[in-house]
Structures are given as structure tokens and as C-alpha cells.
Amino acid sequence: APVIELDHVSKRYPNGFMALEKVSLSLFPGEIHALLGENGAGKSTLMNILYGVHEPTEGGVLMHGRQVIHRRPADAIANGIGMVHQHFRLVAPFTVAENLALVARGERQKMFRRQSDIHAFMQRYGMDLDPAAKVKDLPLALQQRVEILKALVNDSRVLLLDEPSTILTPDEIGALYDTLRRISEKGTAVAVVTHNVDEVLAHADRYTILRRGKTNGSGLTASCTPHD
Ligand code: ADP
Ligand code: ADP
């Protein structure tokens, strides 16, 4: 069953512009779902609805089959949704560990004061960053890893990534998807916005194409072994 669904979601911005029209989409645990579409198709709007930045004008968001209302990102985060923004929201002069501790809640906050626990958390996803490194000293691809870890800190069941590959070299894109695969294999539903069809065919399980705010195709890629 899907972790999260959009059910006939429409979004009209205050200026009257219809950015999404009756879009339905299901994210499944263990799958990498690519969201394709040209600039202005509505991809960011869709992600922002899942993440609680915007509320739908019509239609609903369901988690585990139940209607949820995310009025702000804090609501979405509390419901286990993590987001990797296109422009990282890391504190550059702080260390990797400090950045993770900033967003950790409850018991997790204590954990991110212990180097050994941070290492164990990273290794769960095949990452091996130095917790004491300052973010500003890391190359972009590694800063992105920190941003991904930050989105997962509070046990997210849904990981959203907004155009993560635009800043990466082809090798780094391969490595990114190796990481996303490890994350999805832990049962997290992964959704990636991208322009790159080759990347989708090589690495994603499922895709949805948006065109002018409407769904214009969806399906499984050849590499998919459906989990549901
Ligand atoms: P994408 O991420 O696919 O490029 P967006 O979701 O950012 O698309 O935007 C979809 C359309 O909605 C675009 O035409 C954009 O200009 C418009 N749009 C986005 N945000 C707003 C807003 N706050 N008010 C009005 N129009 C918006
Ligand atoms: P990104 O692709 O990183 O989401 P954008 O430049 O598309 O960045 O949008 C940045 C912000 O501007 C978003 O919050 C978006 O909703 C808003 N925005 C985009 N297009 C419009 C528009 N036509 N009118 C008003 N706000 C917009």
C-alpha cells in the first residue's frame, strides 16, 4: 500500500493561476518515484503540497490511507516527511554533526552529540562523512549528502528531492542513486524531481510526467520490481 497519496489535487495560486489540476499520485515504500516535466509543469508545487508548504485548493493528501492536513512543513516533518531542497538549507560554518543536531528531535538530539552514533546512522545509508567536517569545506555532492541525512534524521518514511542531479557530474548522479536505493531499501518512499529522462530510466522504479499542471503519463520503468 502507498505511504502517501495525492488524491485529485488541484492548486490555484492567489493570483488565480492553476498550477495543478486533479493530480493523483501514490508513493510506495521501497520505490524510487521520478517526477518529470518541463519548467513550470507544477513539479515544485506538487512537492510543496506533500511537504506542507502549500495546501491543496481541492483534493486531499492521504498517509497510510488516511486524510492528513499539512499546513506547514513542521506538520509534514512530524508525519515523517523529509525534503532535500534544491538550494541547501545547511548552516555552512557549522559541522556535519551540528547541522544534523539542529533538526533532530527528542532522543535523536542526544544521539547526534555522539560521534559513534552519527557514524552508525550514516552507515545505515552507506555514507561515510566526517561528522566534524565543516559543511562549507565539503564539495557540493557531499553537502548534498548532509542535506539528505538531515531529511532522514527524524526517521522519515518519505524522502522528497527537488532536482538533486542538476549540480552533479554523471558519476556523482550514479552515486546519488546508489544512496537513494539504500534509503528506499529501508522502506522509505523516495520521490525525485528531475528533467533527465535517461536518469529516470536508469535508476527510478516508477515515473509520473507532469505537463501544464496535469498528469501526462505515468508508469513503471524496466528496472522496477514493484513492491505493491
Ligand atoms: P516546476 O517546478 O515544474 O518548474 P512550479 O510548480 O514551480 O513548476 O510552477 C508551476 C507554475 O506555477 C509555473 O507557471 C509558475 O510560474 C507558477 N507558480 C509557482 N508558484 C507560484 C505562486 N506562488 N504564485 C503564482 N504562480 C506560481
Ligand atoms: P524552485 O525551482 O527552486 O522552486 P522557483 O524560482 O521556481 O524556485 O520559485 C521560487 C519561489 O517563487 C517559490 O516559492 C515559488 O512558489 C515562487 N514562484 C514561482 N513562480 C512564481 C510566480 N509566477 N508568481 C509568484 N511566485 C512564484
What does this structure look like?
The strands form 2 sheets. This protein has a 6-stranded mixed beta sheet, sandwiched between helices. A 4-stranded antiparallel beta sheet has the order 2-1-4-5, covered by helices on one side. It has 8 helices and 10 strands. With 228 residues, the protein is of the alpha/beta class. The longest helix has 16 residues, at 170-185. The model has no long low-confidence stretch (mean pLDDT 94). Helix content is 32%, strand content 27%. The structure holds adenosine-5'-diphosphate (ADP) (2 copies). Belongs to the ABC transporter superfamily. Drug exporter-2 (TC 3.A.1.117) family.
What spatial form do the alpha-carbon principal axes imply?
globular
Largest sheet: 6 strands, mixed
> Helical element count?
8
Question: What ligands are attached or bound here?
Answer: adenosine-5'-diphosphate
Number of strands: 10
Helix/sheet category? alpha/beta
How large a portion of the residues is in β-strands, by DSSP E? 25-35%
Indicate the low-confidence ranges by residue numbers: none
Kindly report the spatial arrangement of strands forming the biggest sheet: 6-7-8-3-9-10
Mean pLDDT: 94
What is the end-to-end distance? Answer: 6 Å
Element-by-element helix/strand order: EEEHEEHEHHHHEHEHEE
Radius of gyration: 17 Å
**Helical content (DSSP H or I, runs of 4+):** 25-40%
